[in-house]
Amino acid sequence: MVRLNNNSEIPQIGVGTWTLRGETARQNVRLALEAGFRHVDTAQGYENEAEVGHGIIDSGILRRDIFVTTKVATNIMREGREAVRKSIDESLTKLKTGYIDLLLIHWPVRDCVKDTWQVMEEYVRQGMVKSIGVSNCNRHHLDDLLTYAEIRPVINQIEVHPFMTQEENIAYNHQLDIQVEAWGPFGQGDIDVVGHPLLQSLAEKYQKTAPQIVLRWIVQRGLITIPRAKPNHFAENLGIMTFSLSDDDMKAISALNQNLRSNVLNDPETFPW
Ligand SMILES: NC(=O)c1ccc[n+]([C@@H]2O[C@H](COP(=O)([O-])OP(=O)(O)OC[C@H]3O[C@@H](n4cnc5c(N)ncnc54)[C@H](OP(=O)(O)O)[C@@H]3O)[C@@H](O)[C@H]2O)c1
Q1: 262 within ligand 1 shell (Cβ under 6 A)
Q2: To test the ligand 1 pocket, which listed residue (70, 161, 186, 219) has its Cβ within 8 A of the most ligand atoms?
């Protein structure tokens, strides 16, 4: 568990659900929870909140033992405060979880963050949302938000993998007492992160798999992460808490940095607004 600046806790590893739809999403969430995950990441934009909610119910696991994150979609942010309110109400209805553990601004859409954030703060005050945070924010986005935020973001969810280590951004978030959550730990499967010879050789050295080496590198940096996977990978992805990487190996993995995003469109500075 990682403690957040509002004193709540989030499981350090969760499951991502981007691209999962319909019955696949429902089953994937149930099986992830059965495998031991207690943290599920979805978003309005993934169009699977209803199925994520069904998967949680199907698992039979107590609501209070599960941490659910969703995110306000960019198109909704552009429509203004009333649309944001309506979308959060809809997320609550679809998820069927009674409350949302963590609600994030999905992308810092220019000129729309303040209105969205202030609506999100309303939902925290009403108790419908426990924690709020952001995603894909660089330093200047955080600086701007903090000029008016009455509630400090607990988390910034950003792209982090060995080719995109985000050291400066992460250090700045930590300085602000904002935890960092790594999305796309394997480069979304679009760039071959785990095939890198260093990760392959470390896998052999530690008798683990290359994906486990990557996830271990992430959690050992104190980050939270949410790999998306098929059920045959769940146990493997959860099995990273029982070994550690040496300081030298941590540094060697970090040295793979190329500031390479899995997709050029994922740059918050040029994201198609
Ligand atoms: N905030 C944002 O803007 C944002 C953006 C992107 C993603 N996210 C969140 O972050 C989550 C994770 O990112 P992502 O889905 O983009 O990509 P990812 O987790 O980096 O990569 C998913 C890919 O990794 C493979 N994989 C997972 N575990 C594996 C293992 N043990 N061995 C081999 N391959 C493995 C999966 O294959 P299999 O399916 O075959 O297991 C899948 O092809 C998303 O699902 C979403 O919830 C957030």
Answers
A1: no
A2: 186
The contacts of residue 252 (CB under 8 Å, 6+ apart) are: 198, 202
Per-residue pLDDT tens for 171-208? 999 999 999 999 999 999 889 999 999 999 999 999 99
Confidence check: pLDDT of 272 > 80: no
User: CB count, 10 Å around CB of 117?
Assistant: 21
Task: Check: CB of residue 136 under 8 Å from CB of residue 268.
Answer: yes
Specify the pTM: 0.98
- Whether residue 216 has pLDDT greater than 70: yes
Residue 3 φ/ψ, nearest 5 degrees: -85, 135
Question: Does the annotation count 123 as an active-site position?
Answer: no
The candidate with the shortest Cα–Cα distance to 77, out of 43, 50, 51, is 43
Helix, coil or strand: residue 131: strand
Domain range 2-266, its CATH number among 3.40.50.1100, 3.40.1700.10, 3.40.50.150, 3.20.20.100: 3.20.20.100
Phi and psi dihedrals of 131, rounded to 5? -140, 150
> Closest by alpha carbon to 227, among 130, 155, 179, 161?
161
In the chain, domain spans: 2-266
Strand partners, 2: 10
Residue 211 CB less than 6 A away from ligand 1? yes
